[in-house]
Amino acid sequence: MKAAVLEGINQKFVIKEVPKPTLIQSEVLVKIKAAALNHRDNWITKGKYAGLKFPIILGSDGSGIVEKVFDKENQHLVGQEVVINPGTNWGDNESFQSTDFKILGLPEDGTFAEYVKVNAENVYPKPNHLSFAEAAAFPLAGLTSYRALFSKARATKKDTVLIVGVGGGSATFALLWAINLGADVYVTSSSDEKIQKAIKLGAKGGVNYTKQDWDSDLKELSGGIDVIIDSAIGDGFAKHFSYINAGGRIVFFGATAGDLPPLNARAIFWKQIQIIGTTMGTSKDFEEMLTFINSNKIVPIIDQTFSLNDIDKAIQRMDAFNQFGKIILTL
Ligand SMILES: NC(=O)c1ccc[n+]([C@@H]2O[C@H](COP(=O)([O-])OP(=O)(O)OC[C@H]3O[C@@H](n4cnc5c(N)ncnc54)[C@H](OP(=O)(O)O)[C@@H]3O)[C@@H](O)[C@H]2O)c1
């Protein structure tokens, strides 16, 4: 089968023929129709990720058709159009993942290939209203944002929600989830154009975080924020305490712009702010997200689609923060 193989740090992907995966008990073989990039793939190409191994086929997100199953009881899955939940071995505790938790696309080979093997319990019916490309967009980023907004921040439609760096893949899902929840949503971005795109999708407004005094502008515009979903962190994180309302929740799962800056402890305890870390999500979160997508007929935002052969160009686009939404690979 054809695959994009990463053979080392800071190297280009090599498009080549590799053996098709061989199934063992409880596994199914999915013929991939579309895959999606996550920042994780970019971190791995740069060597900035734990547990690196080479050669590796990256890719956590994929949609396709089940071609083969190992166990007879999974025969009904053959021919089904599916999306893949990239997380395995979450463990028994809903609150956090076990030490055996794994994400598809390192250490196991992932979706940037014609075929991938996964556990039968990790495939879910593709929403009927979505194309394969749209369905490939949501698993990892959508799940992480879904858990952040619903399971962790416990957002309701009464909340005013801020999405930081709205152009990012997971940020655009946080935007879609919060809008469909019926909350008032504000965004930050480095790009005025991306803010306008978010407003067209239903955000109430936004500010450009590269401009001076963006935090006081945001406070005036929004009247105060209850829930913040931030996957960038960096120095901007310290500003949250000037516009967050008492009882506010800040959920984060990434640190694209760097680590936490010094924070004003008094503002945090006096306003009774919760700062909450999260990562990916349980199979229950994944199922709830699918129900939310299906019942609201939500369509993921696709930035651009590349062929597998052009994977290096796709990674470069992510690296330059040019995207608004998910970067897709088609096979
Ligand atoms: N723990 C987990 O389970 C988990 C899951 C998913 C993602 N993540 C992490 O979350 C982060 C985002 O992932 P992704 O796949 O959504 O990435 P992505 O699509 O590459 O998102 C990048 C976006 O981050 C925003 N950004 C960059 N610098 C910023 C800054 N200084 N202030 C505010 N926003 C900034 C930009 O938004 P604008 O273009 O609008 O400025 C950019 O488009 C990554 O660090 C990733 O590793 C973690």
From TrEMBL:
<dbReference type="InterPro" id="IPR052711">
    <property type="entry name" value="Zinc_ADH-like"/>
</dbReference>
<dbReference type="GO" id="GO:0016491">
    <property type="term" value="F:oxidoreductase activity"/>
</dbReference>
<dbReference type="Pfam" id="PF00107">
    <property type="entry name" value="ADH_zinc_N"/>
</dbReference>
<dbReference type="InterPro" id="IPR011032">
    <property type="entry name" value="GroES-like_sf"/>
</dbReference>
<dbReference type="InterPro" id="IPR013149">
    <property type="entry name" value="ADH-like_C"/>
</dbReference>
<feature type="domain" description="Enoyl reductase (ER)">
    <location>
        <begin position="8"/>
        <end position="329"/>
    </location>
</feature>
<dbReference type="InterPro" id="IPR036291">
    <property type="entry name" value="NAD(P)-bd_dom_sf"/>
</dbReference>
<dbReference type="Pfam" id="PF08240">
    <property type="entry name" value="ADH_N"/>
</dbReference>
<protein>
    <submittedName>
        <fullName>Alcohol dehydrogenase</fullName>
    </submittedName>
</protein>
<dbReference type="InterPro" id="IPR013154">
    <property type="entry name" value="ADH-like_N"/>
</dbReference>
<dbReference type="InterPro" id="IPR020843">
    <property type="entry name" value="ER"/>
</dbReference>
